[in-house]
Amino acid sequence: MIRMQYKEKAYHEQLSVSEITNACFEPGCQMVKCDPRNGKYMACCLLFRGDVVPKDINSAISVIKTKRTIQFVDWCPTGFKVGINYQPPTVVPNGDLAKLQRAVCMLSNTTAIQVRTSTELKEN
Question: Where is the Tubulin/FtsZ 2-layer sandwich domain (predicted)?
């Protein structure tokens, strides 16, 4: 699992397109408190910023699809929506975020949310 980098390390340790794409699917990198490995994805939209090229993005997505470690529902095409903004991510001067060459944001729909919700309902 890729852990959050310290600001100082980020200046000399830039992650590849493949690494940041895979990190999107890690439970620790999600903004929701559920484990996406307990469900299947229905849709994924990836927005890349900065020093990225379509060839690297297509390669990263192809690896995800062929490895099959990330589960997708069988009744929906496993297409990814991809957007590219070639402007590098911006940072606030003297802020806490490190200046990076590239970044990605994922918006997805997974059945793991249903598992999380049904577990909470049973507990109450």
Answer: 1-122
Domain count, the chain: 1
The pair of three-digit structure tokens given for residue 47, joined into one six-digit string = 């927005």
Side-chain-side CA neighbours of residue 88 (13 Å): 8
Q: Please write the tens of the pLDDT for every residue from 1-50.
A: 344 444 555 555 788 999 999 999 888 888 887 788 888 889 899 999 99
- Owning domain of residue 107: 7-123
Residue 96 belongs to some domain of the structure: yes
Residue 35 lies in a domain: yes
* Strand-pair partners of 84: 48
Taking alpha carbons only, the member of 9, 1, 19, 39 closest to residue 103 is: 19
Tell me, yes or no, whether 22 lies in a domain.
yes
Q: Is residue 64 within 8 Å of residue 72, measured between CB atoms? A: no
Using CA atoms, how far apart are residues 4 and 36, in angstroms rounded to an integer?
19
Nearest to 1 by CA among 15, 10, 43: 15
